[in-house]
Amino acid sequence: MWFPGLIIIFAIAWYLAYREAGANAWIALVAGSMAAITFGASLPWHLSIPLWLAAAALVLLLGVPKIRQQLLAKKLLALFHKAVPAMSDTEREALEAGSIWWDAELFSGRPNWDKLLNTPRPQLSEQEQAFLDGPVETLCTMLDDWKITHEDQDLPPEVWNFIREKRFFGLVIPEEYGGLEFSAQAHSAVVMKISSRSIVAAVTVMVPNSLGPGKLLLHYGTQAQRDYYLPRLARGEEIPCFALTGPDAGSDAGALPDTGIVTHGEWEGKTVLGVRLNWEKRYITLGPVATIIGLAFHMYDPEHLLGDKENLGITLALIPGDTPGVTIGARHIPLDIPFQNGPNWGKDVFIPMSQLIGEQEFIGKGWRMLMESLAEGRSISLPALAVGAAKVSSRYTGAYAAIRQQFNMPIGRFEGVEEALARIAGLTYQMDATRKLTLCALDTGEMPSVVSAIVKYHLTERYRQAINDAMDIQAGSGISLGPANLIGRAYQALPIAVTVEGANILTRNMIIFGQGAMRCHPWIIREFSAARNQDSTQAVIDFDHAIFGHIGFFLGNAARSLFLGITRGRLSRSPVTGPARRYYQRLNWMSSAFALAADITMMTLGAALKRKERLSARLGDVLSEMYLTSAVLKQFEDDGCREEDLPLLHWACAHSFHRMQESLRLLARNLPFRPAGWALRLLLFPSGLPYAPPDDRISHKVAQLLLHPCGSRDRLTQGIFLTDDERFRQGVIEQAFFQAAVTAPIEKTLRNAHHAGLITAEGRIEQAREALEKGLISEEELDDIKKMHLLRRQVITVDSFEDYGKQYLLQPETKISNHVA
Ligand SMILES: Cc1cc2nc3c(=O)[nH]c(=O)nc-3n(C[C@H](O)[C@H](O)[C@H](O)COP(=O)(O)OP(=O)(O)OC[C@H]3O[C@@H](n4cnc5c(N)ncnc54)[C@H](O)[C@@H]3O)c2cc1C
Q1: Is 418 designated active site?
Q2: Given a cut of 70, is residue 807 above it in pLDDT?
Q3: Longest Cα separation, the chain
Q4: Does the beta carbon of 256 sit less than 6 angstroms from any atom of ligand 1?
Q5: How far is the CA of 498 from the centre of ligand 1 (A)?
C-alpha cells in the first residue's frame, strides 16, 4: 500500500520538475501527499501532527515570498557575494556585449524548435546576386594568386583600383554614404568567393568591412564623422586599418599599454583641446597601406580638463596616417600570404577631440564598442574564409581523388582515402550550414556574441581538419607550390585564421562557455545583476526570484536529463517527421544534459571554474556541437529534405553527437569533486553511451558524393569560384573530373579484361587500343580514354621552376670559406 503511493508521489514530483512547475503546483503536491499519507495510510496522530507541521513550515518557507526572502534568499545572497569574485570592467563589458539568440535556447534545456525553423531562409537580393555574378566574378578572373603570393607579394595596381572602384570596401556602408549596404549573407558570400581564388584578395576586402573604422563609425560615430569618412571609405579613398594588438597586449588586449593624455595642442593651425597619444602596435592588417588608423588606447585626464575622473578607460580614435609623430613600420610576412600587414607606432601624436570615435560621448567605452563590433565581424569574415577553403577542398580534392590513379584505380576508391574525403565533405556541410544560420541571425538584427565565438573557433578548426585531409589526399601535388596548386596557400593561411580575432585556444577555453554561461543561462546573469544592486532590499527580492528560478531550472534539467537519457530522447517533441526526427529528439536530450552538467560544474567549482579551462572548454564544445547540429538540421529543411543529402546529414549528426557525448563523459570524469562526477555520469547517460562516430557505410556514401558529379556536390560547393574554362586550373580539373565519370565504366572494362587475360598490354592507352582490336570497346570509347589520359596528365602535373633558389646558390669559394668558418 505504501510503496505504490510513494511511487505515484515520486512520479508526480518528477513530472512537476520536468515541466519546471511553479510554487503552487509544488504546494498542491505537498498538501495532496500529506492528505494521502494521513488518511490513506491511517497514520496515528503522534506521527501525522509532526508531519503536517513540517509540511506547513516547508510551504510557508518556500511559498510565502517575504518569509523566503528574509530566511533564505538573504543568506544565500551573502554566500554568493563571498563565493563569486568581483568582475573587472573589461570582463563585464565583454560579457554584456552583443545579444543572445539560438544559443540561449540550447542552454534552456528545452529548445523551442519553432524559433529555429521559423528563422528566414538565407537568400540574396537581386542586387547582391548581380554583384556576385558581375564584379566579384570579374575580380576572381583578374586574380592570379601565384603571381600575387610568389612574385609581387601584393595585389597588382589594377586589382586595387578595381576593388576601390566597385566599392568592395563599402560592402557594409549604407547606400546614402555611397556604400553597397549588403546583408550579412551577401557580405559573407563575397568574401567566400574571393577567398576561393585568392586569400590575399579576400583578406584585403574583408578587413575594412569587418572590425574597423567603417563599422565603428556606423555604430558610434557622430553625424559629422559619418558624413566625412564613410563616403571616402566606401570609395576606397581612405584605406583603413584597426590597431589594437601590440607587443605586450595580444590575447589580453584589454591590458594595452598605449596611452592618450587629455591636453591642449596644435591642430590645423589652432590650439584646441585634444589627446596626446603614444602607442606601439603590431600585426596590423592593411597597416602598411592605411591612410586612416583606427586606434585603441587607454585615455587619462591628469589635469582634469574634462572632469573629476583621471582614468577614463579604453577609447577609440581615428588617426590620419600623415599626422606628425605617426610611423608606419615595414611589413610582416604572415606565412607567405602577403596581404598588407605590419607594425605602426606613434610618438606624442596630437589629435583633437573630434577625432575620437563618437567624440566625448564614447570616451572610455572603447572596449564595449570593440566587443560589440567583434560579435558581428567575427561571425562573417573568418567563417567565410574557412568555409571557402573547405569548399575548395571538397570540390577540387574530391575531383583529384577521382582523377588521380594508383594501383590502377582512382585513389578515391581506397577506403583510407574515402575516410578522409568523407571528413572533408561532412565537415564542409556542417560548416556551410553554420555559416548560413549565423548570417540569418545577423540579418534579423542579432549580434550574437557567444555564437560568433563558436563559429570563429569551430569553423576555423574544421578548416584545419579539412585542409589537412586535402593535403594528405593530394600528397605531392598539394605540397608542391605553384600556379597548379589550389590548396597550398589555403594550408599556409590556416594558422592566420586560427590566430586572429581571438586566438583559438583562448576562444575555446575561456570565451565560449565563459561567456555562454553568463549570457545564455536563463538565471545566472540575473543573479549577478541582483548581487550588484546597491539597493539591498531590491537586491534580496531580485536574488530571491533568480535563485529559486535557478533551482527550478536545475531540478527540471535533472528530471528531463534522466528521463530522456533512459528513453534516449524518444518520447520528446520533434518539430518534423522523417529521417531528421530522431536528431531533434536527441538534441532535446543533449540540451537538458548540457544545462544540468553546466550547473553541476558551476556549483561544485564556483569561481575556480575560471581557472579550470579544460572543463570550461568541454562544456563549450557541447554547446558548440549542439549549435552546429541545429544548423545542419535547419539547412536540411531549407534544402527541401533531399534524399540525396541524407548521407551528409547522417555523417554530420553522428560526428557531432559523438563529440557531445565524449565532452560530457570527460567532463564528468574530470570533475574535481568526484561524487558530483559520478552523479553527473549517471544522470547524463543512465542507459550507457549511445553515440559512435560516423560508421563506414555512411562514410562511404558521403565520399561518393565528392567522387561523382551530383547535385549534393554542387550544393556543397556552391558559392566558390567555378569554371570549366581551361585557362584556369579549376577549369582543367573540372573537365577532367567530368571526363573521369565518362571513362570510369570503360576503364573498368579494361581492368576486367586485363584480369581475365583478354588483353595483355600494360599502359592504359595500349590496353584501350588492344581492347578496340578485340571488339571489347568502341572507337568513341578509345577516344574518351585518350582524352582522359591527356586531362589526367594535366591535372597530376605539378610546377617546377628553373630559377627557384638561384639567388641562394653559393659560389664555390664562399662555400669553402663558410665551411672553414
Ligand atoms: C596575420 C595577422 C593579422 C592580424 N591583424 C590584426 C589587426 O588588423 N589588428 C589588430 O589589432 N590585431 C591584429 N592581429 C593580432 C591578433 O589579434 C593577435 O595575434 C591575437 O590576438 C593573439 O595575440 P598574440 O599573437 O600576441 O598571441 P598571445 O596572446 O601571446 O597568445 C599565445 C597563445 O596563448 C593562448 N592564450 C593566451 N591567453 C590565454 C588564456 N587565458 N587561456 C588560454 N589560452 C590563452 C592563445 O590562444 C595563443 O594560443 C593580427 C595577427 C596576425 C598574426
Answers
A1: no
A2: no
A3: 112
A4: no
A5: 9
Q: Tell me, what's the pLDDT at 809?
A: 52
Closest residue by Cα to atom 7, ligand 1, is 284
Q: pLDDT, tens digit, for every residue of 550-565?
A: 999 999 999 999 999 9
User: Do 371 and 90 form a contact (C-beta atoms < 8 A)?
Assistant: no
What is the distance in A from the centroid of ligand 1 to the CA of 499?
5
The set of residues, in sequence order, having a beta carbon less than 8 Å from that of 241 and lying 6+ positions away, is 207, 212, 284, 285, 286, 287, 290, 292, 293, 294
Neighbouring CB atoms inside 10 A of 219's CB total: 15
> Ligand 1 in contact with 244 (CB < 6 A)?
yes
Q: How far apart are CA 626 and CA 364, in angstroms?
A: 37
Ligand 1, closest atom to CA 241?
8
> How far is the centre of ligand 1, averaged over its atoms, from the C-alpha of 497 (Å)?
11
**Does residue 290 register a pLDDT over 90?**
yes
Quick check: CB of 285 below 6 Å from ligand 1? Answer: yes
Name which of 91-105, 722-736, 780-794 the model is least confident about: 91-105
Per-residue burial over 728-763, b if 16 or more Cβ lie within 10 Å, else e, is bbbebbbbbbebbeebeebbebbeebbeeeebeeee
The fraction of the chain above a pLDDT of 70, given in percent, is 97
Indicate the pLDDT class of residue 196, thresholds 50, 70 and 90. very high
Look at ligand 1, atom 31, and give the residue with the nearest C-alpha: 251
From 499, 515, 614, mutation site for ligand 1 pocket: most ligand atoms within 8 A of C-beta: 499
Which pLDDT score, from 0 to 100, does residue 820 have? 38
Give the DSSP letter string of 596-632: HHHHHHHHHHGGGGGT-HHHHHHHHHHHHHHHHHHHH
Tell me, what's the pLDDT at 812? 45
Q: Does the Cβ of 249 fall within 6 Å of ligand 1? A: no
Atom of ligand 1 nearest to the CA of 334: 1
Instruction: State the closest ligand 1 atom to the C-alpha of 249, by its place in the atom list counted from 1.
Output: 26
User: pLDDT above 90 covers what percent of the chain?
Assistant: 79
Return the ligand 1 atom nearest residue 281 CA. 11
Q: Are strands 292-300 and 259-267 parallel, antiparallel or unpaired?
A: parallel
Residue nearest to atom 49 of ligand 1 (CA): 505
**Residue burial 367-396, b: 16+ Cβ < 10 Å; e: rest:** bbbbbbbbbbbbbbbbbbbbbbbbbbbbbb
Q: Single out the catalytic residue among 20, 105, 280, 501.
A: 501
Q: Cβ atoms within 10 A of the Cβ of 336, count? A: 13
Q: Please tell me if the CB atom of residue 492 comes closer than 6 angstroms to any atom of ligand 1.
A: no
In the reported structure, the alpha carbon of residue 202 is separated from the centroid of ligand 1 by a whole-number distance in angstroms of: 20
How far is it, in rounded angstroms, from Cα 53 to Cα 288?
78
Helix axes 512-520, 613-638, angle to 10 degrees: 70
pTM of the model: 0.94
Q: What integer best gives the mean pLDDT of the chain?
A: 93
The amino acid at residue 470 is: A
Given CA atoms 97, 102, 105, 107 in this order, what sign does their dihedral have?
negative
Residue type, 346: G
Question: What average pLDDT does range 65-80 have in this prediction?
Answer: 89
Q: Hey, how many other C-beta atoms are within 10 angstroms of the C-beta on 697?
A: 10
Please tell me if the CB atom of residue 38 comes closer than 6 angstroms to any atom of ligand 1: no
- Structural contact between residues 421 and 705, judged by C-beta atoms closer than 8 angstroms: no
Torsion from C-alpha of 743, 745, 747, 748, nearest 10 degrees: 170
Q: Is residue 509 in contact with ligand 1, taking CB distance under 6 Å?
A: yes
Q: What is the distance in A from the centroid of ligand 1 to the CA of 506?
A: 9
Q: Is the pLDDT of residue 211 over 90?
A: no
* Per-residue pLDDT band at 617 (split at 50, 70, 90): very high
Which residues 6+ apart lie within 8 Å of 187 measured at CB?
Answer: 171, 172, 209, 380, 384
Residue 96: count of CB within 10 angstroms of its CB: 16
What pLDDT digit, counting tens, does each position of 134-174 carry?
A: 999 999 999 999 999 999 999 999 999 999 999 999 999 99
